[in-house]
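Researcher: I'm preparing a figure for a lab meeting and need a structural model of a single chain. I don't have an experimental structure, so a prediction will have to do for now. The sequence is pasted below. Please return the structure as tokens so I can convert it later.
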Amino acid sequence: MPTLKDLLAHGTDADAAISAPGRPPLTHGGLRAQIGATLERLNALGLGRNDRVAIVLDNGPEMASCFIACASGVASAPLNPAYRADEFEFYLSDLNARALIVARGSSSPAIEVAAKLGVPVLDLVVAEGAPAGAFTLEPRTAIAAAAAAAPGYAQEGDVSMVLHTSGTTSRPKIVPLSQGNLAASARHIAATLQFTARDCGLNIMPLFHIHGLIAGVLAPLTAGSQVFCTPGFNALKFFGWMDEARPTWYTAVPTMHQTILARAAKNADVIARHPLRFIRSSSSSIPPQVIRELEEVFKAPLIEAYGMTEATHQMCSNPLPPAARKPGTVGRAAGPEVAIMAEDGSLLPAGETGEIVIRGPNVTAGYESNPKANAEAFTNGWFRTGDQGVMDAEGYVSITGRLKEIINRGGEKISPREVDEILMDHPAVAQVVCFGMPHPKLGEEVAACVVLREGAQATERELQEFVGQRAADFKVPKKILFMPEIPKGATGKLQRIGLAAKLGLT
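Model: Understood. Here is the structure written out token by token.
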């Protein structure tokens, strides 16, 4: 089984690997040298394979190269730079971090927390005029370090990335991902999207999240492609970046795609100048109406994929043309084996609804120090995703809902996604998220947050009648909130669980 070192050897020395706005690019040869030098530095500071190194850096080329370097020889633990001190204390303690990497000059609350916990802080230093992604590491204070117990590049079974689940309903769980998991996932995604050295991806995804790290950065680099690393999603700058990067593709979550669409008409010339080979969407479901609009505007296929942290991102994907894309599905198995499981653990035939389960080389071996969660998550060697779905005769998977998100209205089970898609057909609706709100007698009732299109108008009653003409009465939202934007989690994903409490509907 190849390691990241093996996969990252594919890029031609002189070809650009990592680029960024207004910066000279780092070549594939330069990236390999950067990884080697970083690991030597970490090993000299006593940090080796399986040691947890937390990374708190803003989006950009150094975050990308630092993650890849750490994942190649220690256990990288990227954390959201927007966390508060209490959150950093939880994560650094829970991870048992051996070091924390921050940008020189950073005043992140993580630094004070690290000092309190006795975790050494390493400054990431970028020299004036350095290529995008080139850096050195300097300890903030002297470290009395012995040589690393396990130096050098990671082997297949070593833990190479540690992330936490989002923990919307419970304490976040630690997901250790091995070198083998990362390498397998990078290969699966590179094969699905047919990356070559001619490709350039415009990365707008956050790099503390599995989607951006694996699909946005690691997979294309293993195929010798270039990645243009932005400071994070900014709709006002997106088309300017397109002109500078001249990308062949980008990946994003649906809310980002919808924001890009809203500005696309004014940037038709930029889109025409830089025809994309494809657009990718993942992390939450994208309404078929938005797929249609994106494909019309960009004249490129939209490839919807399905991923999760425990699978090192990708599980299913719609294929590139000429194979069939089926809007409304997340495509076919694209890496691991995928099946539909009944409540009793048996596997269901095509056309029957159950829980989506996976197994394969990209799937975590299990949550860390959490036997209860592992007993619930694995059945007969299959990992249970927690998503409800159905597979058709050709192997295309449709997600019918998150099992925990299914609204139980007095025994009637309602998939919030179904109501989302009906509301998205209303001409005044730009974005929507349906969710369950508490009800004293029924247990739960349907509610919705709606963002209207610019200049459009609609009333709660009008939208309720619109849904009522297309679905049973019990599926009609009893409460519709009109908002300027949909409340989202840190990675831009819509989070139905806990939304009622967040909006004061409890």
